[in-house]
Amino acid sequence: MENFEPTIIAFVCNWCTYTAADLAGTSRLIYPKNVRLIRVMCTGMVDPQYIIKAFLEGADGVLVSGCHPGDCHYINGNYKARRRMKLIKEILGQLGIEEQRLRLTWIGASDGIQFAETIREIVSQIKALGPNQTQFKMAM
Amino acid sequence: MATAVKIDVKEQNLLGAFQGFFKILLELEDIHALLVPQQLPVKGSVMPTLVTDPDQLDGVDPLAPAFPLNAARVVSRLTRKPMGGKVVAVLRPCEIRAFIELVKLNQGSTEELILVGVDCLGAYSNADYYRLAGENPREITERFYQNVLGGKGTQMDGVDITAACKACEHPIPDQADLVVGLYGVDTQSGLYVEGKTPKGEDLIQRLGLPAAETPPSREGAIGALVAERTAYRDKMFADTREAAGSLDQMAEYFSHCINCYNCRVACPVCYCKECVFVTDVFYHEPAQYLKWSRRKGVIKMPTDTVFYHLTRLAHMSTACVGCGQCSNACPNDIPVMEVFRTMAHRTQQAFEYEAGKSLEEKPPLSDFREAEFEEVVGIS
Ligand code: SF4
Ligand code: SF4
Ligand code: FES
Protein backbone atom coordinates (compact mmCIF):
# COMPACT_ATOMS: atom_id res chain seq x y z
CA MET A 1 0.00 0.00 0.00
CA GLU A 2 3.12 2.22 0.23
CA ASN A 3 2.72 3.73 -3.20
CA PHE A 4 -1.05 3.95 -3.28
CA GLU A 5 -2.16 7.46 -4.20
CA PRO A 6 -5.91 7.70 -3.72
CA THR A 7 -8.18 9.78 -5.92
CA ILE A 8 -10.61 11.89 -3.98
CA ILE A 9 -13.45 13.76 -5.59
CA ALA A 10 -14.49 16.82 -3.62
CA PHE A 11 -17.73 18.66 -4.32
CA VAL A 12 -17.15 22.07 -2.76
CA CYS A 13 -19.55 24.94 -2.52
CA ASN A 14 -18.59 28.11 -4.32
CA TRP A 15 -19.17 30.39 -1.34
CA CYS A 16 -17.39 28.61 1.47
CA THR A 17 -15.21 25.58 0.91
CA TYR A 18 -14.10 26.54 -2.58
CA THR A 19 -13.09 29.94 -1.29
CA ALA A 20 -11.28 28.23 1.59
CA ALA A 21 -9.42 26.03 -0.92
CA ASP A 22 -8.48 29.13 -2.86
CA LEU A 23 -7.25 30.76 0.31
CA ALA A 24 -5.20 27.68 1.17
CA GLY A 25 -3.59 28.03 -2.26
CA THR A 26 -2.86 31.73 -2.08
CA SER A 27 -1.54 31.27 1.46
CA ARG A 28 0.85 28.64 0.06
CA LEU A 29 -0.42 25.98 2.40
CA ILE A 30 0.60 22.51 1.36
CA TYR A 31 -1.90 19.67 1.08
CA PRO A 32 -1.84 16.39 -0.85
CA LYS A 33 -2.59 16.63 -4.55
CA ASN A 34 -4.94 13.61 -4.47
CA VAL A 35 -8.05 15.73 -4.40
CA ARG A 36 -9.99 16.81 -7.51
CA LEU A 37 -12.16 19.77 -6.67
CA ILE A 38 -15.51 20.16 -8.35
CA ARG A 39 -16.99 23.55 -7.67
CA VAL A 40 -20.76 23.58 -7.17
CA MET A 41 -22.90 26.55 -6.25
CA CYS A 42 -24.11 24.89 -3.05
CA THR A 43 -23.85 21.51 -1.30
CA GLY A 44 -27.61 21.38 -1.72
CA MET A 45 -27.13 20.72 -5.44
CA VAL A 46 -25.01 17.63 -5.01
CA ASP A 47 -27.33 14.91 -6.28
CA PRO A 48 -26.60 11.52 -4.67
CA GLN A 49 -26.15 10.39 -8.24
CA TYR A 50 -22.89 12.37 -8.52
CA ILE A 51 -21.50 10.54 -5.52
CA ILE A 52 -22.57 7.14 -6.84
CA LYS A 53 -20.99 7.91 -10.21
CA ALA A 54 -17.72 8.94 -8.57
CA PHE A 55 -17.46 5.62 -6.74
CA LEU A 56 -18.46 3.57 -9.77
CA GLU A 57 -15.77 5.32 -11.78
CA GLY A 58 -13.25 4.23 -9.20
CA ALA A 59 -12.87 7.23 -6.87
CA ASP A 60 -11.33 6.12 -3.58
CA GLY A 61 -13.17 8.75 -1.61
CA VAL A 62 -15.73 11.51 -1.98
CA LEU A 63 -15.91 14.70 0.01
CA VAL A 64 -18.85 17.08 0.03
CA SER A 65 -18.05 20.34 1.75
CA GLY A 66 -19.80 23.65 2.17
CA CYS A 67 -20.87 26.41 4.49
CA HIS A 68 -21.53 25.90 8.18
CA PRO A 69 -25.15 25.40 9.24
CA GLY A 70 -26.83 28.78 9.20
CA ASP A 71 -24.34 30.18 6.67
CA CYS A 72 -25.62 28.57 3.45
CA HIS A 73 -26.08 31.25 0.80
CA TYR A 74 -29.24 29.50 -0.32
CA ILE A 75 -30.52 29.38 3.26
CA ASN A 76 -30.87 25.63 3.77
CA GLY A 77 -28.98 23.80 1.02
CA ASN A 78 -26.51 22.35 3.49
CA TYR A 79 -29.28 20.92 5.68
CA LYS A 80 -30.64 19.14 2.62
CA ALA A 81 -27.15 17.97 1.77
CA ARG A 82 -26.86 16.48 5.24
CA ARG A 83 -30.04 14.43 4.77
CA ARG A 84 -28.82 13.22 1.39
CA MET A 85 -25.51 12.29 2.95
CA LYS A 86 -27.35 10.25 5.57
CA LEU A 87 -29.27 8.51 2.78
CA ILE A 88 -26.35 7.77 0.52
CA LYS A 89 -24.18 6.53 3.38
CA GLU A 90 -26.99 4.15 4.26
CA ILE A 91 -27.09 2.83 0.67
CA LEU A 92 -23.38 2.66 -0.04
CA GLY A 93 -22.71 1.36 3.46
CA GLN A 94 -24.82 -1.68 2.61
CA LEU A 95 -22.58 -2.24 -0.38
CA GLY A 96 -19.41 -2.35 1.65
CA ILE A 97 -18.23 1.20 0.97
CA GLU A 98 -16.50 2.18 4.19
CA GLU A 99 -17.76 5.17 6.16
CA GLN A 100 -14.40 6.97 5.81
CA ARG A 101 -14.63 7.06 2.02
CA LEU A 102 -17.60 9.39 2.09
CA ARG A 103 -17.34 12.62 4.02
CA LEU A 104 -19.35 15.76 4.60
CA THR A 105 -17.69 18.76 6.23
CA TRP A 106 -18.43 22.40 6.81
CA ILE A 107 -15.46 24.62 5.97
CA GLY A 108 -16.03 28.36 5.95
CA ALA A 109 -14.51 30.80 3.44
CA SER A 110 -11.78 31.96 5.81
CA ASP A 111 -10.79 28.45 6.92
CA GLY A 112 -7.89 27.83 4.50
CA ILE A 113 -5.93 26.10 7.22
CA GLN A 114 -8.81 23.84 8.11
CA PHE A 115 -9.28 22.95 4.44
CA ALA A 116 -5.65 21.85 4.10
CA GLU A 117 -5.84 19.87 7.33
CA THR A 118 -9.07 18.19 6.32
CA ILE A 119 -7.62 17.03 3.00
CA ARG A 120 -4.47 15.74 4.70
CA GLU A 121 -6.54 13.76 7.19
CA ILE A 122 -8.90 12.32 4.58
CA VAL A 123 -6.02 11.27 2.34
CA SER A 124 -4.23 9.56 5.19
CA GLN A 125 -7.39 7.73 6.26
CA ILE A 126 -8.06 6.52 2.74
CA LYS A 127 -4.45 5.48 2.22
CA ALA A 128 -4.88 3.29 5.27
CA LEU A 129 -8.04 1.76 3.81
CA GLY A 130 -6.51 1.03 0.43
CA PRO A 131 -8.05 1.45 -3.01
CA ASN A 132 -11.75 1.29 -3.82
CA GLN A 133 -11.98 -2.29 -5.05
CA THR A 134 -14.53 -1.70 -7.80
CA GLN A 135 -12.07 0.00 -10.11
CA PHE A 136 -10.37 -3.30 -10.75
CA LYS A 137 -13.46 -5.04 -12.08
CA MET A 138 -15.21 -4.68 -15.38
CA ALA A 139 -17.38 -1.57 -15.35
CA MET A 140 -20.98 -2.68 -15.19
CA MET B 1 -73.46 4.29 16.01
CA ALA B 2 -72.13 1.40 14.07
CA THR B 3 -68.57 1.68 12.85
CA ALA B 4 -68.62 -1.83 11.47
CA VAL B 5 -71.16 -3.73 9.43
CA LYS B 6 -71.66 -7.19 8.04
CA ILE B 7 -72.23 -8.13 4.43
CA ASP B 8 -74.01 -11.45 4.03
CA VAL B 9 -72.29 -14.17 2.09
CA LYS B 10 -74.48 -16.77 0.43
CA GLU B 11 -73.22 -20.21 -0.58
CA GLN B 12 -69.60 -19.24 -0.06
CA ASN B 13 -69.90 -16.79 -2.92
CA LEU B 14 -67.58 -14.03 -1.74
CA LEU B 15 -67.41 -12.35 -5.13
CA GLY B 16 -71.20 -12.15 -5.18
CA ALA B 17 -71.14 -10.52 -1.74
CA PHE B 18 -68.56 -8.01 -2.92
CA GLN B 19 -70.65 -7.25 -5.97
CA GLY B 20 -73.71 -6.56 -3.81
CA PHE B 21 -71.69 -4.33 -1.48
CA PHE B 22 -70.17 -2.33 -4.32
CA LYS B 23 -73.59 -1.91 -5.90
CA ILE B 24 -74.92 -0.40 -2.67
CA LEU B 25 -71.96 1.98 -2.58
CA LEU B 26 -72.35 3.04 -6.16
CA GLU B 27 -76.05 3.64 -5.75
CA LEU B 28 -75.42 6.26 -3.08
CA GLU B 29 -76.19 9.65 -4.49
CA ASP B 30 -72.85 11.25 -3.69
CA ILE B 31 -70.69 8.39 -4.97
CA HIS B 32 -70.03 8.93 -8.64
CA ALA B 33 -67.75 6.11 -9.57
CA LEU B 34 -66.02 3.03 -8.31
CA LEU B 35 -62.50 1.97 -9.17
CA VAL B 36 -62.37 -1.78 -8.73
CA PRO B 37 -60.56 -4.78 -10.20
CA GLN B 38 -62.75 -6.77 -12.56
CA GLN B 39 -62.38 -9.80 -14.74
CA LEU B 40 -62.39 -8.40 -18.24
CA PRO B 41 -64.23 -10.16 -21.01
CA VAL B 42 -60.83 -11.24 -22.27
CA LYS B 43 -59.36 -14.49 -21.16
CA GLY B 44 -57.81 -14.47 -17.71
CA SER B 45 -57.47 -10.74 -17.40
CA VAL B 46 -58.17 -8.91 -14.13
CA MET B 47 -57.67 -5.16 -14.31
CA PRO B 48 -58.76 -2.05 -12.44
CA THR B 49 -61.97 -0.67 -13.96
CA LEU B 50 -63.69 2.65 -13.40
CA VAL B 51 -67.40 1.94 -13.05
CA THR B 52 -70.25 4.44 -13.01
CA ASP B 53 -73.11 2.06 -13.83
CA PRO B 54 -74.11 -0.14 -10.84
CA ASP B 55 -75.18 -2.83 -13.30
CA GLN B 56 -71.67 -3.15 -14.69
CA LEU B 57 -70.18 -4.94 -11.72
CA ASP B 58 -70.58 -8.57 -12.78
CA GLY B 59 -66.87 -9.19 -13.00
CA VAL B 60 -65.70 -7.56 -9.75
CA ASP B 61 -62.89 -9.58 -8.31
CA PRO B 62 -60.79 -8.03 -5.54
CA LEU B 63 -59.69 -11.50 -4.42
CA ALA B 64 -58.08 -12.85 -7.60
CA PRO B 65 -54.46 -13.84 -7.04
CA ALA B 66 -53.68 -11.39 -9.83
CA PHE B 67 -51.73 -8.18 -9.41
CA PRO B 68 -51.11 -6.95 -12.96
CA LEU B 69 -49.97 -3.51 -11.82
CA ASN B 70 -49.84 -1.36 -8.73
CA ALA B 71 -52.97 0.76 -9.17
CA ALA B 72 -51.58 3.65 -7.10
CA ARG B 73 -50.48 5.14 -10.41
CA VAL B 74 -53.99 4.83 -11.82
CA VAL B 75 -55.46 6.57 -8.78
CA SER B 76 -52.82 9.26 -9.09
CA ARG B 77 -53.97 9.89 -12.66
CA LEU B 78 -57.55 10.18 -11.50
CA THR B 79 -56.85 12.57 -8.67
CA ARG B 80 -54.02 14.83 -9.77
CA LYS B 81 -56.65 17.51 -10.42
CA PRO B 82 -60.25 17.76 -9.23
CA MET B 83 -62.35 15.10 -10.97
CA GLY B 84 -65.69 16.70 -10.25
CA GLY B 85 -67.10 13.67 -8.49
CA LYS B 86 -66.51 11.32 -5.61
CA VAL B 87 -64.79 8.04 -6.32
CA VAL B 88 -64.49 4.94 -4.18
CA ALA B 89 -61.25 3.11 -4.94
CA VAL B 90 -60.93 -0.55 -3.99
CA LEU B 91 -57.26 -1.31 -3.56
CA ARG B 92 -54.71 -3.68 -2.09
CA PRO B 93 -52.85 -2.47 1.01
CA CYS B 94 -49.61 -1.89 -0.92
CA GLU B 95 -51.51 0.12 -3.52
CA ILE B 96 -52.92 2.34 -0.80
CA ARG B 97 -49.50 2.79 0.76
CA ALA B 98 -47.91 3.66 -2.58
CA PHE B 99 -50.71 6.11 -3.27
CA ILE B 100 -50.10 7.81 0.08
CA GLU B 101 -46.49 8.33 -0.98
CA LEU B 102 -47.66 9.88 -4.25
CA VAL B 103 -50.08 12.20 -2.47
CA LYS B 104 -47.21 13.45 -0.33
CA LEU B 105 -45.32 14.19 -3.53
CA ASN B 106 -48.29 16.16 -4.84
CA GLN B 107 -49.09 13.50 -7.43
CA GLY B 108 -52.57 12.75 -6.23
CA SER B 109 -55.15 13.76 -3.69
CA THR B 110 -57.52 12.05 -1.27
CA GLU B 111 -59.97 14.95 -1.46
CA GLU B 112 -62.59 13.30 -3.66
CA LEU B 113 -61.56 9.78 -2.82
CA ILE B 114 -62.72 7.11 -0.45
CA LEU B 115 -60.21 4.32 -0.06
CA VAL B 116 -61.59 0.85 0.44
CA GLY B 117 -58.96 -1.71 1.35
CA VAL B 118 -59.53 -5.44 1.28
CA ASP B 119 -57.49 -7.80 3.49
CA CYS B 120 -54.88 -8.99 1.03
CA LEU B 121 -54.61 -12.69 0.29
CA GLY B 122 -51.55 -12.20 -1.90
CA ALA B 123 -51.03 -12.71 -5.62
CA TYR B 124 -49.10 -14.78 -8.13
CA SER B 125 -46.66 -13.24 -10.57
CA ASN B 126 -48.24 -12.07 -13.80
CA ALA B 127 -46.67 -14.92 -15.74
CA ASP B 128 -47.89 -17.55 -13.26
CA TYR B 129 -51.35 -16.07 -13.00
CA TYR B 130 -51.98 -15.89 -16.73
CA ARG B 131 -50.82 -19.44 -17.16
CA LEU B 132 -53.09 -20.63 -14.37
CA ALA B 133 -56.18 -18.54 -14.98
CA GLY B 134 -56.45 -19.32 -18.68
CA GLU B 135 -60.12 -19.39 -19.64
CA ASN B 136 -61.46 -19.50 -16.15
CA PRO B 137 -60.32 -16.74 -13.80
CA ARG B 138 -63.44 -17.01 -11.63
CA GLU B 139 -62.75 -20.62 -10.78
CA ILE B 140 -59.15 -19.76 -9.88
CA THR B 141 -60.26 -16.95 -7.62
CA GLU B 142 -62.78 -19.17 -5.86
CA ARG B 143 -60.32 -21.97 -5.28
CA PHE B 144 -57.73 -19.46 -4.14
CA TYR B 145 -59.77 -17.73 -1.46
CA GLN B 146 -61.28 -20.98 -0.27
CA ASN B 147 -57.76 -22.41 0.16
CA VAL B 148 -56.29 -19.36 1.85
CA LEU B 149 -59.21 -18.65 4.16
CA GLY B 150 -59.68 -22.35 4.84
CA GLY B 151 -56.09 -22.60 6.09
CA LYS B 152 -54.86 -24.61 3.11
CA GLY B 153 -52.25 -22.07 2.11
CA THR B 154 -51.60 -20.00 -0.96
CA GLN B 155 -50.06 -22.64 -3.22
CA MET B 156 -52.09 -23.95 -6.11
CA ASP B 157 -51.17 -26.20 -9.03
CA GLY B 158 -47.49 -25.79 -8.23
CA VAL B 159 -47.41 -22.00 -8.10
CA ASP B 160 -47.32 -19.81 -5.05
CA ILE B 161 -47.75 -16.13 -4.23
CA THR B 162 -44.74 -13.93 -4.98
CA ALA B 163 -41.82 -13.35 -2.64
CA ALA B 164 -43.05 -9.77 -2.24
CA CYS B 165 -46.38 -11.03 -0.89
CA LYS B 166 -44.76 -13.66 1.33
CA ALA B 167 -42.53 -10.95 2.82
CA CYS B 168 -45.34 -8.44 3.25
CA GLU B 169 -46.10 -7.58 6.85
CA HIS B 170 -48.94 -5.25 5.84
CA PRO B 171 -51.68 -7.59 4.59
CA ILE B 172 -54.25 -5.46 6.44
CA PRO B 173 -55.04 -2.12 4.77
CA ASP B 174 -54.67 0.00 7.91
CA GLN B 175 -54.60 3.26 5.97
CA ALA B 176 -57.94 2.74 4.18
CA ASP B 177 -61.11 4.63 5.03
CA LEU B 178 -63.00 1.34 4.94
CA VAL B 179 -61.53 -2.09 5.50
CA VAL B 180 -63.14 -5.27 4.27
CA GLY B 181 -61.86 -7.88 6.71
CA LEU B 182 -61.33 -11.51 5.76
CA TYR B 183 -58.71 -12.81 8.18
CA GLY B 184 -60.19 -14.18 11.38
CA VAL B 185 -63.66 -13.57 9.96
CA ASP B 186 -66.26 -16.29 9.43
CA THR B 187 -66.48 -15.60 5.72
CA GLN B 188 -68.90 -18.52 5.26
CA SER B 189 -71.54 -16.28 6.77
CA GLY B 190 -70.37 -12.76 6.01
CA LEU B 191 -67.72 -10.19 5.27
CA TYR B 192 -66.71 -7.78 8.00
CA VAL B 193 -66.51 -4.11 7.01
CA GLU B 194 -64.99 -1.56 9.32
CA GLY B 195 -64.82 2.25 9.10
CA LYS B 196 -61.30 3.42 9.94
CA THR B 197 -61.56 7.15 9.42
CA PRO B 198 -64.37 9.71 9.90
CA LYS B 199 -64.93 9.49 6.13
CA GLY B 200 -65.26 5.74 6.30
CA GLU B 201 -67.47 5.77 9.39
CA ASP B 202 -69.77 8.29 7.81
CA LEU B 203 -70.12 6.12 4.73
CA ILE B 204 -70.75 2.95 6.69
CA GLN B 205 -73.67 4.49 8.52
CA ARG B 206 -75.42 5.27 5.28
CA LEU B 207 -75.30 1.77 3.86
CA GLY B 208 -78.26 0.34 5.73
CA LEU B 209 -76.32 -2.81 6.58
CA PRO B 210 -76.53 -4.67 9.90
CA ALA B 211 -74.00 -3.60 12.54
CA ALA B 212 -71.21 -6.00 13.41
CA GLU B 213 -68.66 -6.51 16.18
CA THR B 214 -65.00 -7.23 15.52
CA PRO B 215 -64.80 -11.04 15.28
CA PRO B 216 -62.92 -12.29 18.35
CA SER B 217 -60.50 -14.37 16.31
CA ARG B 218 -59.47 -11.51 14.02
CA GLU B 219 -56.66 -10.06 16.09
CA GLY B 220 -55.02 -13.42 16.66
CA ALA B 221 -55.32 -14.42 13.02
CA ILE B 222 -53.70 -11.18 11.89
CA GLY B 223 -50.96 -11.46 14.50
CA ALA B 224 -50.05 -14.96 13.38
CA LEU B 225 -50.00 -13.99 9.71
CA VAL B 226 -47.89 -10.90 10.32
CA ALA B 227 -45.42 -12.92 12.40
CA GLU B 228 -45.07 -15.46 9.61
CA ARG B 229 -44.60 -12.74 7.01
CA THR B 230 -42.07 -10.87 9.13
CA ALA B 231 -40.01 -14.02 9.63
CA TYR B 232 -39.96 -14.62 5.86
CA ARG B 233 -39.04 -10.99 5.29
CA ASP B 234 -36.14 -11.03 7.72
CA LYS B 235 -34.73 -14.16 6.15
CA MET B 236 -35.07 -12.53 2.74
CA PHE B 237 -33.16 -9.49 4.02
CA ALA B 238 -30.36 -11.71 5.33
CA ASP B 239 -30.14 -13.74 2.11
CA THR B 240 -30.15 -10.63 -0.04
CA ARG B 241 -27.38 -9.02 1.98
CA GLU B 242 -25.33 -12.16 1.32
CA ALA B 243 -26.03 -12.01 -2.40
CA ALA B 244 -25.77 -8.27 -3.01
CA GLY B 245 -23.57 -6.87 -0.29
CA SER B 246 -20.93 -5.13 -2.38
CA LEU B 247 -20.72 -3.15 -5.59
CA ASP B 248 -19.21 -6.12 -7.39
CA GLN B 249 -21.96 -8.39 -6.12
CA MET B 250 -24.53 -5.84 -7.26
CA ALA B 251 -23.01 -6.03 -10.72
CA GLU B 252 -23.35 -9.81 -10.63
CA TYR B 253 -26.88 -9.62 -9.24
CA PHE B 254 -27.92 -7.42 -12.15
CA SER B 255 -25.79 -9.12 -14.77
CA HIS B 256 -28.90 -10.16 -16.74
CA CYS B 257 -30.21 -6.60 -16.71
CA ILE B 258 -30.68 -5.14 -20.17
CA ASN B 259 -31.47 -1.59 -19.01
CA CYS B 260 -35.03 -1.82 -20.28
CA TYR B 261 -36.20 0.21 -17.25
CA ASN B 262 -39.40 -1.81 -16.97
CA CYS B 263 -38.82 -2.02 -13.24
CA ARG B 264 -39.10 1.69 -12.81
CA VAL B 265 -42.06 1.98 -15.17
CA ALA B 266 -43.85 -0.62 -13.04
CA CYS B 267 -42.75 0.94 -9.76
CA PRO B 268 -45.61 2.97 -8.32
CA VAL B 269 -43.33 5.33 -6.42
CA CYS B 270 -40.73 6.06 -9.08
CA TYR B 271 -42.14 9.55 -9.19
CA CYS B 272 -40.05 11.49 -11.74
CA LYS B 273 -42.00 12.64 -14.78
CA GLU B 274 -38.97 11.95 -16.91
CA CYS B 275 -36.32 9.54 -15.73
CA VAL B 276 -32.83 10.96 -16.07
CA PHE B 277 -31.66 7.66 -17.55
CA VAL B 278 -33.69 8.24 -20.70
CA THR B 279 -32.57 11.83 -21.16
CA ASP B 280 -29.64 13.21 -23.12
CA VAL B 281 -27.50 12.94 -20.01
CA PHE B 282 -27.17 9.23 -20.76
CA TYR B 283 -27.12 9.55 -24.53
CA HIS B 284 -23.36 9.41 -24.39
CA GLU B 285 -21.02 10.58 -27.12
CA PRO B 286 -19.88 7.54 -29.11
CA ALA B 287 -16.26 8.45 -28.37
CA GLN B 288 -17.04 8.32 -24.66
CA TYR B 289 -17.61 4.56 -24.81
CA LEU B 290 -14.20 4.06 -26.35
CA LYS B 291 -12.63 6.18 -23.65
CA TRP B 292 -14.27 4.11 -20.94
CA SER B 293 -13.27 0.90 -22.58
CA ARG B 294 -9.67 2.06 -22.95
CA ARG B 295 -9.49 2.92 -19.30
CA LYS B 296 -10.74 -0.45 -18.07
CA GLY B 297 -9.76 -2.64 -21.03
CA VAL B 298 -13.35 -3.91 -21.21
CA ILE B 299 -16.77 -2.58 -20.35
CA LYS B 300 -20.16 -4.26 -20.40
CA MET B 301 -22.70 -2.87 -22.88
CA PRO B 302 -25.17 -1.37 -22.35
CA THR B 303 -23.39 0.68 -19.71
CA ASP B 304 -24.72 2.35 -16.56
CA THR B 305 -26.63 -0.68 -15.27
CA VAL B 306 -25.52 -0.63 -11.64
CA PHE B 307 -25.49 3.15 -11.82
CA TYR B 308 -29.15 3.07 -12.78
CA HIS B 309 -30.20 0.76 -9.97
CA LEU B 310 -28.23 2.66 -7.32
CA THR B 311 -29.65 5.97 -8.50
CA ARG B 312 -33.14 4.57 -8.35
CA LEU B 313 -32.46 3.40 -4.81
CA ALA B 314 -31.24 6.87 -3.89
CA HIS B 315 -34.32 8.46 -5.39
CA MET B 316 -37.14 6.22 -4.22
CA SER B 317 -36.01 3.72 -1.61
CA THR B 318 -37.47 5.78 1.23
CA ALA B 319 -40.83 5.41 -0.56
CA CYS B 320 -40.60 1.71 -1.48
CA VAL B 321 -43.67 -0.17 -0.27
CA GLY B 322 -42.36 -3.59 -1.24
CA CYS B 323 -45.16 -4.35 -3.70
CA GLY B 324 -42.88 -6.40 -5.92
CA GLN B 325 -44.04 -4.94 -9.23
CA CYS B 326 -40.42 -4.33 -10.20
CA SER B 327 -39.71 -8.06 -10.08
CA ASN B 328 -43.02 -8.74 -11.80
CA ALA B 329 -42.04 -6.49 -14.69
CA CYS B 330 -38.51 -7.73 -15.25
CA PRO B 331 -38.22 -9.64 -18.53
CA ASN B 332 -35.19 -11.49 -17.25
CA ASP B 333 -36.56 -12.64 -13.91
CA ILE B 334 -34.14 -10.62 -11.82
CA PRO B 335 -35.37 -10.55 -8.20
CA VAL B 336 -35.37 -6.75 -8.16
CA MET B 337 -37.78 -6.39 -5.23
CA GLU B 338 -35.47 -8.31 -2.91
CA VAL B 339 -32.67 -5.77 -3.33
CA PHE B 340 -34.94 -2.75 -3.24
CA ARG B 341 -36.87 -3.82 -0.16
CA THR B 342 -33.73 -4.87 1.67
CA MET B 343 -31.93 -1.61 1.02
CA ALA B 344 -35.11 0.42 1.54
CA HIS B 345 -35.66 -1.13 4.93
CA ARG B 346 -32.41 0.46 6.14
CA THR B 347 -32.90 3.81 4.42
CA GLN B 348 -36.39 4.10 5.91
CA GLN B 349 -35.08 3.08 9.33
CA ALA B 350 -32.37 5.71 9.06
CA PHE B 351 -35.05 8.39 8.90
CA GLU B 352 -37.47 6.60 11.25
CA TYR B 353 -39.86 6.60 8.34
CA GLU B 354 -42.20 3.97 7.02
CA ALA B 355 -43.38 4.36 3.46
CA GLY B 356 -47.13 4.65 3.12
CA LYS B 357 -47.84 4.75 6.82
CA SER B 358 -49.35 8.19 7.11
CA LEU B 359 -50.17 11.28 5.12
CA GLU B 360 -48.75 13.47 7.87
CA GLU B 361 -45.11 12.34 8.02
CA LYS B 362 -43.19 14.21 5.36
CA PRO B 363 -41.03 12.17 2.98
CA PRO B 364 -37.51 12.19 4.47
CA LEU B 365 -35.97 14.05 1.58
CA SER B 366 -38.60 16.78 1.54
CA ASP B 367 -37.78 17.77 5.08
CA PHE B 368 -34.91 18.69 7.40
CA ARG B 369 -34.20 19.95 10.90
CA GLU B 370 -31.47 22.33 11.92
CA ALA B 371 -30.07 19.96 14.51
CA GLU B 372 -29.90 16.36 13.29
CA PHE B 373 -27.66 13.68 11.82
CA GLU B 374 -24.50 15.22 13.25
CA GLU B 375 -22.92 11.77 12.90
CA VAL B 376 -22.58 12.15 9.14
CA VAL B 377 -20.64 15.41 9.44
CA GLY B 378 -16.90 15.61 10.03
CA ILE B 379 -13.90 13.41 9.47
CA SER B 380 -13.30 11.59 12.72
S1 SF4 C 1 -39.10 -0.68 -5.89
FE1 SF4 C 1 -40.31 -2.50 -6.45
S2 SF4 C 1 -41.17 -3.22 -4.48
FE2 SF4 C 1 -40.50 -1.08 -4.14
S3 SF4 C 1 -42.35 0.17 -4.54
FE3 SF4 C 1 -41.16 0.05 -6.50
S4 SF4 C 1 -42.06 -1.70 -7.61
FE4 SF4 C 1 -42.77 -1.87 -5.45
S1 SF4 D 1 -36.82 -4.65 -15.50
FE1 SF4 D 1 -35.09 -6.07 -15.21
S2 SF4 D 1 -33.88 -5.93 -17.14
FE2 SF4 D 1 -35.29 -4.15 -17.11
S3 SF4 D 1 -34.03 -2.49 -16.17
FE3 SF4 D 1 -35.19 -3.46 -14.47
S4 SF4 D 1 -33.78 -5.07 -13.66
FE4 SF4 D 1 -33.01 -4.42 -15.71
S1 FES E 1 -24.01 27.96 -0.38
FE1 FES E 1 -22.45 26.89 0.68
S2 FES E 1 -23.56 25.12 1.33
FE2 FES E 1 -25.17 26.27 0.39
**Structural shape of chain A:** globular
What class, by secondary structure content of chain A? alpha/beta
Helical segment count of chain A: 4
Count the beta strands of chain A. 4
One letter per element, helices H and strands E, the order of chain B comes to: EHEEHEHEHHHEEHHHHHHHH
Taking Cα atoms only, what radius of gyration of chain B do you get, to the nearest Å? 22 Å
What is the correct CATH architecture of chain A? 3-Layer(aba) Sandwich
Side by side, the strands of the main sheet of chain B go 1-7-6-5-4-2-3
- The CATH class label of chain A is Alpha Beta
Number of strands of chain B: 7
| Annotated CATH topology of chain A | Rossmann fold
Q: Report helical residue fraction of chain A.
A: 25-40%
Task: Describe the structure concisely.
The complex is a heterodimer of chains A (140) and B (380). With 140 residues, chain A is α/β, with parallel strands linked by helices.
Which labels suit this protein?
heterodimer; A: 140 residues; alpha/beta; 4 strands; globular; B: 380 residues; 2 domains; 7-stranded mixed sheet; 14 helices; 39% helix; 10% strand; binds iron/sulfur cluster
What would you note in describing this structure?
The complex is a heterodimer of chains A (140) and B (380). Chain A is an alpha/beta fold. Chain A is built from 4 helices and 4 strands. In chain A, strand 1, helix 1 and strand 2 form a beta-alpha-beta unit. Chain A starts with 7 loop residues before the first strand and ends in an 11-residue tail after the last helix. The model of chain B has no long low-confidence stretch (mean pLDDT 96). At the A-B interface, helix 2, helix 3, strand 4 and helix 4 of A face helix 9, helix 12 and helix 14 of B.
